[in-house]
Sequence to fold (619 residues):
Amino acid sequence: MRTVTWMCGLFIAASAVGCSSSSGGGTDGGDDVKTHPVSDAGHDGASDATRDSGHDAGHDAVTDAIVDTGPDLDAAVGLTCAKLVACDNACGTSGTCTDTCYAEATGVAQGLFNAFNACISANCPSGDGGVCAMSSSTACSNCNQEQATTSCVTGLGACLSDTKPGPPDPDGGGVVVVHVDAGKSFNCGELIACQAACSLDAGPCAMTCSNEATPEARALAGTLSSCLAMACPAVDGGPCQMQGLACSGCIEQVELAEPDTCATPYIACNADTSNSPDGGSTPKPLVDGGVLTTLVKGLDQAASTIVASNGYLYFTQVVSGSPILRIPLTDGGTVEQLGPPQATPVSLAVDSTNAYVWSVGTFELNSSTNNKDGTVVQVPLGGGAAVTLAQNVEVLYDAAYLNAIAIDAKNVYWVAGANGSDGTIMKTAIGSASPTAIFSGQLVPQALTTDGTNVYWADWGTFNAQGDPNTDGTIWQGPVGGGTAIMLAANQSAPSAIAVDGTHVYWSNLGPLGGDNLPQPNGGSVMKVAIGGGTVTTIASAQAVPVAIALAGTNLYWSQYGLSAPGLIMTTPTAGGAVTPIAAGLDDPAAIAIAGKTIYWTNANSSPTNGSISALTPF
Fold:
């Protein structure tokens, strides 16, 4: 079972292994769980590269389940890129050994290896006093390891995905130069213009335009198209049932003259700079008059949950030993520490008296679960002794756990369990260290919330033989005192976060995994169902990893992590309607909180000390 961390700074695996990739060959007797490659590695940063035999493509950063035991140039089948890296990894600093491994590999493997290795070399230079001037140094090894799963992860993913058979290429003469994530040319405005130039029946033409657009451009164009399809329908006698003046006039009206319909996604599309030299990475508000600010910088991976309450924004850093932190909402100000350090705090809840923190504890390298040392701790806001409400909490290595803890006026609730159907929904009275399981037999409970009458939670479901989550996640409802639970939705794809209002339950699905072990591009969704059960409704489809959701009045907001493109903050009415981006060009946005007219979110970032918290007013 290969385990490679995914989404450093968001997923708890990162805090356990320091954002490195790792491998393990054993099984856990049941649901083997694989974590996934760290995301958003340098946004289109890989390039054609020449071979550098001095570097080893990140010693100790990448291993494979099968390690080649020695050169065999007469073999009919050459090494794949993954096996080439594994063979090279065993060479230590021996350039001769690396050359021999390289000669055993296929031309395709050599090309992929070159691209990945050149990225490592560029980020960990060996000349002019660079970090790898001494290739055997600890600093060099650490740099290789970090860059392999951050800036160079696209090349890593391409290498690990190589399964092309072929003969070995001893002289290197047949090396294939591989363009890895070389970038796209169209922003949203150019995509729309390209598709507009296609004839009405030219489906392949429109698809070619889409294939040349950046992921952010496709997302923005999809949002605009969805709005136009609702405002100017092509069915039931709508103005766009036939192309002509009625259709073009309707589109022009709702894009330019009616700000409450499609003006915002139209402006967002035409403001898209995702194909610019910086990849559109400069954050920008997409709302007229909006002001985007950064409240906190320098966070070590940032928070998995943030809470706006009592005039403060509460958050943690997802690293071992981080306390609960808070900052005033009014004018920013000094970050204040609450209570003692926690054991990798991930999820928070806050009332008028206390903050409640759910921590995942510690992990052994390559373990699918923690050391059964997660905790639930109650921390007084006004000072005083913290109360440990629960210990020995078992959790899964892979999950986001943005809503792992919830509170009502009397009780604290949380999720636990990581293997098979041993998951539980736990409860204890505020201030009491007497936890009880109110619902058991759950398949990896991931997130929960409560309205004081019921608890609502999401199960990830089962995993396939490769450790990928199957599309059999579920959404549940049950009385706060325990009893009979109701399944509200089945066949969900990695449900991540959950929220509830007076009538409906809402959740986000990260989406199915693609061949590169990352969520399929734009495969996520945001869903809802009535409390008590009913028709499951898709609020938004084709989302680029929708991680967190939040409710404010009659609107729903969520973050799009983005992966290979800058992230977005999205919104739509809870009753349904246009899905609108309100901020773009973001650095891995994750958790969301709303207070008054301001929306806050964390920018996870894959590099230590580069996490931050942003705010947008108004929205």
In short: The CA atoms of residues 54 and 94 lie 9 Å apart. DSSP finds eleven helices and 31 strands in the chain. The radius of gyration is 25 Å. The chain has three domains: 45-160, 188-270, 284-598+607-617.
